[in-house]
Amino acid sequence: MTLHLRNTLTRAVEPVEPADGDRLRMYACGPTVYRYAHVGNLRTFLLADLIRRAVLYHGIPVLAVQNITDVGHLRDERFDRGEDRMLVAAGLEHKTAAEIADAYEAAFHADAALLNLLPAHVFPRATEHIPEMLELAQALVDAGHAYVSDNRKSVV
């Protein structure tokens, strides 16, 4: 039996098949590690785990990637000063942003293990891929799929 899911882009039910014919590449957004995860955060990760397990059940190998956002997660400027949550937590706990990220990433992995979530194969940190993110943002702008705000000249 083949696994089928609704493709929200095409609005059609389509078979789930690896694009390269080998294994399904699955990306799931990970935590922003400036405080402990709560039930609402963990619900998101439970859904990704459920989808992954369904794919595995159907015999499709999976390469799972889940990012760790360890910098640059801004607060809502309408309600506060638009500060990076990592830096705010670092100031409140008298630690560096890296120490905050390390501590809360470890807590996230411990919580995920308690929920019996399958760990991703790769956990890239945002700070390790900033040049690639800027390049992708610029490519999206250039292709007309994103825009630059009025107060900036470019995404870089």
Descriptive key words:
single chain; globular; 4 strands; 38% helix; 156 residues; alpha+beta
What does this structure look like?
- This protein has 156 residues and is of the alpha+beta class.
- 38% of the residues lie in helices and 12% in strands.
- It has helices at residues 39-57, 85-93, 97-114, 130-142, and strands at residues 4-7, 12-15, 24-28, 62-66.
- It has a two-stranded antiparallel ribbon. A two-stranded parallel ribbon has the order 3-4.
- The mean pLDDT is 88.
Mean pLDDT: 88
Using only CA atoms, what is the Rg? Answer: 18 Å
Distance between the first and last residues' Cα: 47 Å
Q: Which regions are unreliable across 5 or more consecutive residues at pLDDT < 50?
A: none
Nutshell version of this structure?
The longest helix is centred in the N-terminal third of the chain and has 19 residues, at 39-57. With 156 residues, this protein is an alpha+beta fold. 38% of the residues lie in helices and 12% in strands.
Topology:
Layout: E1 4-7, E2 12-15, E3 24-28, H1 39-57, E4 62-66, H2 85-93, H3 97-114, H4 130-142
Parallel strand pairs: 3-4
Antiparallel strand pairs: 1-2
Helix pairs in contact: 2-3
